[in-house]
Amino acid sequence: MEPPEAQSIKSMLHVVRILAIIFGVLLFLAGLAYAALAYAAYTSCTSIAGNICAGSLGVVLIFPIIIVIFGLVDVVIYLQMKSIEALVNQRQYEQAKSKTLLWMILGFILGGLIVGILLLIAYLKFDPLITWQRNQMAGAPAGGYAAPMAPPPAAAGAPPAAGAPQKFCSSCGAPNAPGAQFCAKCGAAMPH
How far is Cα 18 from Cα 10, in angstroms, rounded to an integer? Predict the structure, then answer.
């Protein structure tokens, strides 16, 4: 069974893919159209004014080139979302989180604010998944996904309070804190 956070992350990655390809294509086409318009203005300027406009083509084309680069970054973000989704499907959450961080930063800088915000939300949703996965590897009870819980107030194996006798587990014989309800070693219920 897939954890709900993983499904939520994959849904956000789908939305980011759609927005990134839309923004990418629009910015790429707008940059090309602006470059064509700037070039047409440059050629008309050189035909009318001659040497006055001769060196300005490079300056005129800087802004359209930047727009095209932003569009290309959005297309690359679109392509990278598929690989992040594959990592989530393979339950490699830490790798997916670090890759999401990289594309989130590039999304904020070059890809557009909306793409960056959605990737930030997806990035933050990885923490409960990673905690859950670590708990599963550490031998937590198997089964479906459970939201991460706060640690118990008394750590297992903590020394008992002064003057209070230790409790011993009736199943495995391990010593436990006086107020323990479950054995810290085997998890059996402690006698009252």
Answer: 13
Q: Kindly compute the dihedral angle of the four CA atoms of residues 69, 25, 104, 125, in this order, to the nearest 10 degrees.
A: -170
Predicted TM-score (pTM) of the model is 0.63
User: What token pair was written down for 13?
Assistant: 């990655």
Helix (H, G, I), strand (E, B) or coil at 191: coil
Rounded distance, CA 157 to CA 171, Å? 17
What's the confidence (pLDDT) of residue 133?
84
CA distance linking residue 67 with residue 28, whole number of Å: 7
Q: What is the pLDDT of residue 100?
A: 92
Across the chain, mean pLDDT equals 81
| pLDDT above 90 for 108 | no
Q: Bridge partners of 182?
A: 189
Q: State both tokens at 89.
A: 């499907």
- CA nearest neighbour of 106 among 116, 98, 97, 114: 116
Cα–Cα distance between 151 and 79 in angstroms, integer? 39
DSSP string, 20-59: HHHHHHHHHHHHHHHHHHHHHHHHHHHHHHGGGGTT-HHH
Q: Residue 112 class from Cβ within 10 Å (0-12 exposed, 13-18 middle, 19+ buried)?
A: buried
Helix (H) or strand (E) holding 168: strand 167-168
Q: Residue 176: beta bridge partners? A: 167
Split at pLDDT 50, 70, 90, the class of 111 is confident
